[in-house]
Amino acid sequence: xxxxxxxxxxxxxxxxxxxxxxxxxxxxxxxxxxxxxxxxxxxxxxxxxxxxxxxxxxxxxxxxxxxxxxxxxxxxxxxxxxxxxxxxxxxxxxxxxxxxxxxxxxxxxxxxxxxxxxxxxxxxxxxxxxxxxxxxxxxxxxxxxxxxxxxxxxxxxxxxxxxxxxxxxxxxxxxxxxxxxxxxxxxxxxxxxxxxxxxxxxxxxxxxxxxxxxxxxxxxxxxxxxxxxxxxxxxxxxxxxxxxxxxxxxxxxxxxxxxxxxxxxxxxxxxxxxxxxxxxxxxxxxxxxxxxxx
Length: 294
Ligand code: PLP
Known about the structure:
This protein is of the alpha+beta class. The protein folds into two domains: about 5-125, 2-Layer Sandwich (D-amino Acid Aminotransferase, Chain A, domain 1); about 130-290, D-amino Acid Aminotransferase, Chain A, domain 2 (Alpha-Beta Barrel), CATH 3.20.10. Helices cover about 25% and strands about 25% of the residues. The protein has eight helices and 14 strands. The strands form two sheets. Strands 7, 8, 9, 10, 11, 12, 13 and 14 form an eight-stranded mixed β-sheet that branches. Strands 2-1-6-5-3-4 form a six-stranded antiparallel β-sheet. The two termini are about 20 Å apart. About 40% of the residues are buried. Pyridoxal-5'-phosphate binds near residues 199, 222 and 259. Pyridoxal-5'-phosphate binds near residues 51, 199, 224 and 260. This is Aminodeoxychorismate lyase. InterPro entries: Aminotrans_IV, Aminotransferase-like, BCAT-like_C, BCAT-like_N, Class-IV_PLP-Dep_Aminotrnsfr. Belongs to the class-IV pyridoxal-phosphate-dependent aminotransferase family. Keywords: Lyase.
């Protein structure tokens, strides 16, 4: 079983070519307060993060998560992260991940108000138990995201493709889904285009073709979706990024919410309409996602 671990990181410049960043790390008590009360991450949600799955001590898809961290930093005008430094921080945390499933979070905040530099830290903890959603599936409702599909290009300051710390809206959507008797939600644009779930990507199956909305539609490009598409292609299936209308959701032969720690949760109902669910196929996806992946 993983133990909890936390590391404060003094962020190095991206062009710092040091090979050993040990003196930029401070191990802290994961149960004790560690942040300045003027932190902009806590005051405004002004920062970015990554949640990385860990299975039996193997950190999954580190490279894809670091690439997305750098992409989010760029979208948010944060200094480019030094990826060698983050890799070393992850390696330090790996020693504490133990057996079973865990989650490593990387957080890069704008820093303290009027402060000179960003604040960065990493935590590692046991993962929540997702065995029921993976095997029994989940019921979802579609929720209006309140933006049309032109918003990402018209209003880049909405930071729609960045994994920012501002998840209050996403959490509100999950609460609304629960109020409606479902487990989770799928966001749909005001012009009827399927986007993503509040904390997951959406993958749909049409025959032997698997599709997901294109990242340019103002969604996060999921590392799990990317990895699953590689796997599906190896198994001989076609995979595509596509504009999917909300009305065609119900025509899918299968649908999943996928993300780094939950892995693949098959959807069993959309807005109260039952969906077909191939439990054996979903189990094969989760078996792949639980195998060591880089
Ligand atoms: N979309 C959103 C909004 C998310 O928060 C997440 C993950 O938390 C994802 C998609 C899936 O991303 P990943 O597969 O990299 O975990």
